[in-house]
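In this supplementary section we document a worked example of the pipeline. Step one takes a protein sequence of length 184 as its only input; no multiple sequence alignment statistics are reported here. Step two produces a three-dimensional model, which step three serialises into structure tokens for compact storage. The input and output of this example are shown verbatim.
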Amino acid sequence: MPHTASRYLAEGPRVGIRHFTYEDGAEFAARVRESKDLHHPWLFPPDTADAYTDYAGRLIEDRTKAGFLVCEKSEGGAIAGFVNINNIVEGAFLSGALGYGAFAHAVGRGLMREGLDLVVGYAFGPMRLHRLEINAQPANTASIALARSCGFRLEGFSPNMLHVDGAWRDHERWAVTAEMRASG
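The serialised model returned by step three reads:
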């Protein structure tokens, strides 16, 4: 389904970001299936319409989550990837944990860099968060390069942090704050 600029929460020169909708299921699942080799062994987004409905429902309805689709403006709104903010904590912490993935047709074109930057700006702007974190497996060099390119700094290493692909995996912890973004 084509998406117009008026539906974007924020726009860059080539992409816009918008929230997930239930109607995105067919395109999203097809893009995931096309990108299975790219994602494995790092992440496992939903690759069927039913799995997408469950996944999108959590992002749409749970106040501790926010999901964003990165859409190509020149391609009628085609979904290039996604960025989710999970574990949103309000009060004194005002933080969230980012997860993201590109789709195969968008890799190497800078679209996710632009999209992640837009999500960070939206999180520190309208969402009024103070801190965002990314946890990436040390061998996932593409994810780490994306985090670094968007101004995240390495803050630590956590052995056996997350259960991914059947095992507990080590992760590097990257973060950015609103102050870092404002000064950078």
